[in-house]
Every structure is written in C-alpha cells, then in structure tokens.
Specification:
By secondary structure, the chain is α+β, with helices and mostly antiparallel strands. Helix content is 25%, strand content 33%. The termini are far apart. The chain binds biotin.
Length: 254
C-alpha cells in the first residue's frame, strides 16, 4: 500500500505563472516523484475554479500544488480527492480557529469568509485516474483584500498573528499526507464523515438559487460523483454539479 509524504521533494519558486501549470508541465516532461510539491512566493497567473483568477499579495500567502498518482481511484470517484484535500485544510485550520467550514464543492471558510481555495486537475486513463495536481491557495499573512474579492480573509486577520510560511506549509502537508493516505487505504467512510462534519449548511434550511430561480432547501448529502444533494420544500431531492447552484451567504449570492 502507498504511503505518500507530500513535500518530498519541495520545489520552491520565487515567481511562476501558476504552480498548477508548472506541475502539469513537469508531469508532461519527466517521471515526477509522487508527493512532489511546487511552492511559489508569487503567481503571475494564479488559476481559480471555473476559469477564475486567484490573486494573492506576493510573499504573504501559501500558494502550492501537490502531485499525486491515484491510479487505484476510479474516475467516477475522483471527487474523493477533493474531499481529502478539503478535509486536510479544514483539519489544519481547526488547530488555529473555530468555525471552520467547507463550502461545497471545496471552498474553505472561517466564520463564513473564504480563507482557502482548491483547484484539482486530474488526468485519466481508461476508467482510472493517472495523475492529480492539487493546487491550494491559503491566505495567511495578507492584511486586507481588494474590494473585488468580497469576504476573503487570512489567518492573520482571524488570529492577529504573523506566521512563518514554511512552518505552516509543513504542518499543512502533514495533514494532507494523512488525509490522502486514508484514500489510499480506501477508508471512504471516515473521509465522507469528516467532509460532512465540516460541510457548510448541512441539514439546515437555507436559500439557494438554480437555473429555475430561488428556492429554499436543505443540503442532505454529497454523492460519490460529487453532486450536492439538496432537499426542496416540495420533497424533491435535486442533485447539483459545479456552478449549477448558488448559495445565499451574508455577502449575497455566491
Ligand atoms: C478557487 O477557490 O477558485 C481555487 C483557487 C486555487 C488557487 C491555487 S494557488 C496554487 C495553485 N496554483 C494555481 O494557479 N491555482 C492554485
């Protein structure tokens, strides 16, 4: 059975377009060791989900991508990787603060404000995964965010403390290794339970929006496929993919 240790080796770059793209180029070029992490002080073209940009003050935050070869994982179960990465960040942040939540699919929130984002890019061979690049942006020492990024927050803004980025990275990579090794051991039950325990809005009646308009619903579960399952007031359970549902948060519709 695999025992992955993320961060061995660690490639530390001062500046790069995107650590995810760098990792993908490396995978295309050579036999990259599983567990390799690419860390950057600054990204010129940081990528967010759904074609968005990920912007970050140079030198203030953690921006990295971890390389993994989950060749045992069926492509239709690839969402478990997202769960593992989100769980690792949530567990890591729980050592610093209360009120940590995972907003489906995988934004990490503290007190309802976004502190970290995840961008996972997989390659697939037949029915199984071949390679995974798990990109993580975690706001650490940034003091404020541009008006265009509503409700972003950093660890420093929450705790009032300045952090040593490499020390934090090592702690986070330990959580990531532990969490991903659970998947290697096929311990799906504990991965799901942890994810659902952190899931923002689970079992609470809330306002949502979908292509048919606004409605009241209650998140009941997340399917193996990654679809968010929402019970509506009329008793129907609807499954949603990425970008098919929006949440009403304090800051408005997200
Ligand atoms: C999101 O919430 O939209 C996902 C953001 C992911 C950002 C990280 S930063 C390191 C890695 N490299 C990238 O270009 N993106 C991810």
């Amino acid at each position: 059975m695999k025992n992955i240790k993320f961060g061995e080796p660690l490639i530390h770059l001062t500046s790069v377009d995107s650590t995810n793209d760098y990792a993908t180029q490396l995978l295309n070029k050579e036999m990259v060791k599983e567990g390799t992490v690419i860390l950057a002080d600054h990204q010129l073209k940081g990528k967010g989900q759904g074609g968005n940009q990920w912007t970050s003050e140079p030198g203030s935050n953690l921006l990295f991508s971890a390389i993994f070869r989950p060749d045992f994982l069926r492509a239709d179960k690839q969402y478990y990787l997202s769960m593992c990465v989100a769980n690792a960040i949530a567990d890591f942040l729980s050592d610093f603060s209360e009120n940590i939540a995972i907003k489906w699919p995988n934004d990490i929130l503290i007190d309802g404000r976004k502190i970290a984002g995840i961008l996972i890019e997989n390659t697939i061979m037949g029915e199984f995964l071949l390679t995974t690049v798990a990109g993580i942006g975690l706001n650490v020492n940034q003091d404020s965010f541009p008006a265009g990024i509503p409700d972003a927050v950093s660890l420093k803004m929450i705790t009032g403390k300045q952090y040593h980025l490499l020390k934090l990275l090592n702690q986070l990579l330990e959580k990531l290794s532990h969490s991903v090794n659970l998947l290697c051991e096929n311990r799906i039950g504990i991965i799901r339970t942890t994810y659902l325990n952190y899931l923002y809005g689970l079992n609470e009646w809330r306002h949502f929006g979908d292509s048919r308009g606004d409605f009241e619903g209650r998140i009941t579960d997340v399917a193996d496929s990654g679809e968010l399952l929402v019970l509506k007031r009329n008793g129907e359970i609807a499954g949603y993919g990425f970008r098919e549902i929006s949440f009403y948060m304090n800051s408005g519709r997200l």
